[in-house]
TrEMBL record:
Source domain of life: Bacteria
Lineage: Bacteria, Pseudomonadati, Pseudomonadota, Alphaproteobacteria, Sphingomonadales
Molecular function in Gene Ontology: methyltransferase activity
Keyword Hydrolase among record annotations: no
TM ranges: none
PANTHER family per UniProt: ARGININE-HYDROXYLASE NDUFAF5, MITOCHONDRIAL
Species: Qipengyuania mesophila
Protein name stated in the entry: Class I SAM-dependent methyltransferase
Alphabetical list of InterPro entries matching this protein: Malonyl-ACP_OMT (IPR050602), SAM-dependent_MTases_sf (IPR029063)
GO biological process terms on file: methylation
Keywords (A to Z) from UniProt: Methyltransferase, Transferase
Keyword Transferase attributed: yes
Length: 252
């Protein structure tokens, strides 16, 4: 009996549209990009630590181009893809790669186990995957604000996210022989809920849910802002958390 298709939680069309909008917004001098900047720096640190000098690399999701530029400077042949050019739920062409890096992308695919298996199949023997995305500990203040906005019948507005334990199980399911899962928290200060939402859109991290809920009305937005500001510090700033989950697996 064939395996049932995974539930359709995310829309690839909406993800692509969000990426295109983010690239337009990045033309503004003050556009946020701290999530990808942090992920790129972390990947470079990891490669230096394991003393890996890959020859063929596939980078998925880094629309800044920074990681590819650094790897090419070290002599690697790098291919760059994103949601607009690569369907992560399908086999990856161009393999094998010594290294596949996916940034801020795998948390918005419908078939995450399948996507991880496709990446493993694209690795050369001894090749390594590094995948970073937002984990389950992310955006607690925004989640509370969205629940407060619609206290009676809250619509699904926030993405379901993966935690460390589930990530480890996913790597095992994808048949990685060795795997490591770790996380870190990036804390960012915001003066308003609008600023947080703007930062998410700048970085292509807005909603990509397949069933888009209707926009919040004026009263709901006011309730959300009030709930968001309840956690403000003495300077009127809200400290929001982004948990960055990193999955590392080897095809040994």
């Amino acid at each position: 009996m064939a395996n049932p298709a995974p539930p359709r939680i995310f829309s690839r069309r909406r993800r692509t549209a969000g990426l295109r909008r983010a690239r337009v917004r990045q033309a503004h001098r003050n556009a946020a990009r701290y999530i990808l900047d942090d992920m790129v720096e972390d990947v470079l640190d990891r490669l230096e630590f394991v003393r890996m000098n890959p020859q063929r690399v596939l980078v998925i999701g880094d629309w800044t181009g920074t990681l590819a530029l650094s790897l090419r400077g070290a002599g690697a042949q790098v291919e760059e893809e994103d949601v607009a050019t690569l369907d992560e739920e399908s086999p990856i062409v161009g393999a094998p790669y010594d290294l596949v890096v996916s940034l801020a992308s795998l948390d918005r695919v419908n078939d995450l186990p399948g996507a991880l298996l496709h990446i493993r199949n694209a690795l050369a023997e001894g090749g390594m995957m590094i995948a970073s995305f937002l984990g389950a500990g992310s955006l607690p203040n925004l989640r509370r604000a969205m629940l407060a906005a619609e206290p009676d019948r809250p619509a699904a507005r926030m993405h379901p996210l993966v935690d460390n334990q589930a990530a480890a199980a996913l790597l095992q399911r994808a048949l990685f022989k060795r795997q490591v899962v770790d996380s870190r928290t990036l804390t960012v200060s915001f003066g308003s809920l609008d600023r947080l939402v703007s930062d998410l859109r700048d970085q292509g991290l807005g909603s990509a849910l397949a069933s888009a809920p209707p926009p919040l009305g004026k009263a709901a937005l006011e309730r959300a802002e009030t709930a968001f500001r309840k956690t403000a510090n003495t300077k009127g700033r809200v400290l929001e958390s982004f948990e960055i989950l990193t999955l590392t697996g080897w095809n040994d």
